[in-house]
Amino acid sequence: MLLMQKLSATLLLCANVFAASDAEVLAYLKKGIASNVNVSNVEVGINGKKAVPSMRGWQAYFVAIEADVKQGAETRHINQNGTYFISGDSMATELVNIKTGERYNDTIAPDFPTQFYTKNNLISGTAKAKYKVAIFSDPLCPFCRRYVPETLSYMQKYPAVFGVYYFHYPLPTLHPAAVTLTKAAIGAEQSGMDNVTLRLYTVDVNANEKDEGKILDAFNKTFKTNFGLADIRRPSVVKQFESDQKAAQTAMVSGTPTVFFDGKKDPTKNKYKEIKVK
Predict the structure, then answer these.
(1) DSSP letter string over the chain?
(2) Please, what are the domains in the chain?
(3) Binning pLDDT at 50, 70 and 90, where does residue 68 land?
(4) Which of 50, 114, 152, 243 is the most buried (most CB within 10 A)?
């Protein structure tokens, strides 16, 4: 669970009697989160709302939360998103349809922001392809290492059908080596190398490795390059890396792989298989 979700979960347990206007939802969340003595400078905003299908009267609120959080001797600035479900005067952090078993936290998300369909992220097909597919992935995520190469190899065969936009989204708490690895991949992309994404998933490196030199050695061995620390710290590399993280945050991505098919979150990750390509 994300840090800010932990901070706000307790306050929501008793959130069942108030008039749920947007302003009051924000005020309630802000007051509750700020009541934690380790949290300061709290800002809360609504990024969007969606009606919950098959759950009459319920709406999903996509909320952006910023705060300074004290952890030990350090203070971290947290910028995270969360989904809250509102119906009348009730609020919940999770919503499940007991008839179907659908957990709406997994299936409801904001539409993919169109401004992130950029040429820098387009790795297959064209901007005019019939369908746009956005993939957020960590190259050291075990599921991603199976899913991405298979999925991308398939869609590459049909460039007029699928425009694939790839976003580097390493999960540093799970796979520390992925951050350096993805920055090296961005550098390779910017240098004009072909098929960087597919080759990235073949790099043999310990996911827990934190020595950037060793991680780059593994990358260079696979790509036949000579990348050093200066290469992954170039302003253009850092800018693209941060852009991908911003896209993930705006689209409320929290795990990998996360897939959006034609702007809608695809919980199955396999909608592309339903498309007739011939």
Answers:
(1) --HHHHHHHHHHTT--SS---HHHHHHHHHHHHHTSTTEEEEEEEEEEEEEPTTSTT-EEEEEEEEEEEEETTEEEEEEEEEEEEEETTEEES--B-TTT--BHHHH--PPPPGGG--TTTEEES-TTSSEEEEEEE-TT-HHHHHHHHHHHHHHTT-TTTEEEEEEE---TTT-THHHHHHHHHHHHHHTT-SSHHHHHTT----TT---HHHHHHHHHHHHT----HHHHTSHHHHHHHHHHHHHHHHTT--SSSEEEETTEE-TTS-GGGGS---
(2) 3-107 (no CATH), 114-274 (3.40.30.10)
(3) very high
(4) 152
